[in-house]
Records
---
Amino acid sequence: MNATHTAPASSAKYAWAGGLRMFAAVMLFLAGLLGIFRGIMAIAEDEVFVTTRNYVFQFDLTGWGWVHLGLGIVAVLVSFGLFAAAAWARYTGIGIAALVIIANFLSLPYYPWWSVIVIVMSGFIIWALCVDRGEDVVGRPTDGRLP
């Protein structure tokens, strides 16, 4: 009788973690897609961006555009790996989300509100990928490891 009570709680725990992986995959896909659009806007030198004087990390707007475009493309590709529950995508997703945070922090004066939104979004991605233990609903590892 005890086994029937512990199994659903254990399954619910792993289902919750798997749900977080899907959440992270969707959020990383959206962050990547928005990074691609932001990169294209910056490369085209759209009037949406603000130019700030005397900023320590001041770079050319086109340069920031290429950085955001590259990170966005990699983030979208990694999100496909997360949808497939690949272990490499989990670790790479954490790294890409961290790089997205750094890039948005450094380009904060150019598009402040959006940079803050993407930083928070990337923080949730890192949190979701760190909570997920990489196991399926039954508790078996999804990356081919033996239990």
Note: Residues 71 and 100 are 7 Å apart (CA to CA).
---
Amino acid sequence: MTFERIMALEVVDDDLYQQYRDNMLPILHTFGGSFGYDFIVSKVLKAKTTKPINRLFTIDFPSKDTMEKFFADPAYLTVKDKYFKASVNAVTMISMHEKAET
């Protein structure tokens, strides 16, 4: 079993968001995490939130505990503060769950 989060964002600065991804990815990999799917969304037909969405992705971890450690990691938080906060206007967590490995 692995642990997966399905996330939706409104990215407002694509270049800065890409810098965030480039800088956080090595940290994510040290925790055994990875991206499963990654989409740029052109049109939302139905949403349970009023927050705008233009990006959708899954992020996978070996366990929920590992995910929590990653998001609390000081190196990750430094990258998030530098790039994520200025490049993303809205964040929606669609789902968080254990999943069977495929």
Note: The two ends are 9 Å apart (CA to CA).
---
Amino acid sequence: MAAASYLLESQEHFKNNGRTKEFSAHTAKVHSVAWSCDGRRLASGSFDKTASVFVLDKDRLVKENNYRGHGDSVDQLCWHPTNADLFVTASGDKTVRIWDVRTAKCVATVNTKGENINICWSPDGQTIAVGNKDDVVTFIDAKSHRSKAEEQFKFEVNEISWNNDNDMFFLTNGNGCINLLR
């Protein structure tokens, strides 16, 4: 929490002084950004086919590592809900990759049926859900790295998320609605 509270103080300082700080993260457009569960690391995913991880040092971000391996843009990423060393990326190359910051390597690559655009980790850390451009959501077992279920939707799926109790799954759609799965 210290990093998170520092970040808030830092943001307030920038706001009061009318300044913003910019940090070079990638060579192309950045699609996604997320904090680790302990608030110590910030990861970003980019059109340049990479993910980067940063640590906050005073009032600046310091790049800890760059993660390469995807064959297309990294469209979204998220951190494991309780393990601050693991994050997952969704890419247009039809793969999901699980990364470990301790080794700075990909620990698993999961092939999917389409170009992935959104991803989330269940609150219990057991399942990764990934949605693709064809409105298919695949549920991946986080331990075996295999698909456990897949569902094709007849509407545009824009974003996905579990509730904190891990017993409901939500999808936003192109019709202005939120759909609930149990």
Note: The chain is about 10% helix and 50% strand.
---
Amino acid sequence: MFAYAEPAELIDAMSSAARAESAAIARRLEAVAALFRSRKCDYAEAGFLHTDVYEAVAAEVSAAQNISRSRAGYQVEMAVSLYTRLPKVAEAFARGDIDLRMVQIVLARTKNVEDDVIGGLDKAIAPKLSRWMRLSKNDLRDRVDLWVADFDPAAVRVPPEAKDNRYFDVTPDVPGMAFAGGLLNARDAAALDQRLEAIAATVCSNDPRSHNNLRADAAGALGRGESTLTCECGAEDCPAAVLRESAAQVVIHILAEQATVDGDGDKAGYLPGFGVLPAEEVRAAAKTAKLKPVRLPGAEPEKGYRPSAGLKDFLQWRDLTCRFPGCDAPVERCDVDHTTRWPFGVTHASGLKHYCRTHHVIKTFLTGVYGWRDEQRRDGTVVLTAPTGHVYTTEPLGGLLFPTLATPTAPLPDVEVPEDDPDKAAMMPRRRTREQERRARIARERRQRIEINAERERQHQAWLAATYEPPPF
């Protein structure tokens, strides 16, 4: 496209594309905000009194954009906040004057501003934002905070304490490997560091691994409840061999074809939460693992509401994740859902699948004209119809990776299902809605800021009193 373009044309194209990108994102968020307003009215009229509108709209956004529930939920919160509290900032965004980075920072720093004040702040800062585009994240944050302090001093965000930011993540990396790391309490980190060093030192000096490799392997031993490593020097009289301790009872599950385990095939396995596992890693794990075949379910439905251990095992490996469009919550955090509600739907693989708790609640309680409908095929494919009539199809991840798990199971009998209880949606179980949680957080943080400001003023007055010298007479 730009093979023969002049530099000036490239600069113009770049600038135009950046503005168009911002305008397109603004239009998407405006549509999300409008959907939220519409659904809020719809659910109120239908009597869905305890429905969390944020979660319900996030489900539609997740399916429409094929994104996760958390990303969809963040998008709904951002869109609603932008178009209800900062319409002037939204206009600048739609014109392409500012980008998404600026919008996110402005939204974050103005979260605690009272509703009766936010309009004036919006009008004051919106014309200035285009000139602030060049500022770094920290400088932009400080600039917005100054304006927030002028309009609503109690609304200036309170920095979280360092201890509240601690975390430890274990996430997949390249096939067969994972990243582990985070921010720990200093004493805990020191203890962990010493523990890794102690375990790494249990091999002899001829072990071929580097010190970093040994520390990484020591982390694995720690996870298994072991206090020593197996030395890889290869010597029969290795002095470290006598130090070897057995592992504690730690269980991980790996899904693989029998041919891979036997060495007759090289199809990768699957480690839940970490993705594909190379064939050689599967065979290495199989040497000391307990092997358990995944059995296909029988033709006859089970009698109880809860599936048997064998059927649940099959369903977990077939699905691997929540079956709602865009949701990747692992089955360990999901409920088994009867596609045709119990007791009319039978307990059988052809009519069972996994939904995370949020999507299970939405499917079960948000019914009728504004609700979701789902149907299930014998190979585990789920077809969902959204309140708007849009249709989304999801296939089981385990069945995609290992086609045997997608073998069609037995057909189910046709049954008559009575209409849902019209009051069921109104009793949708909730702890607190996102709006209630948002207001509680804002109130808590405003109290903290008021206390901080009062203490600063007290210290300032004390300093004035200590340094005051009366005039001579």
Note: The chain has four domains: 7-159, 164-243, 252-293, 309-418.
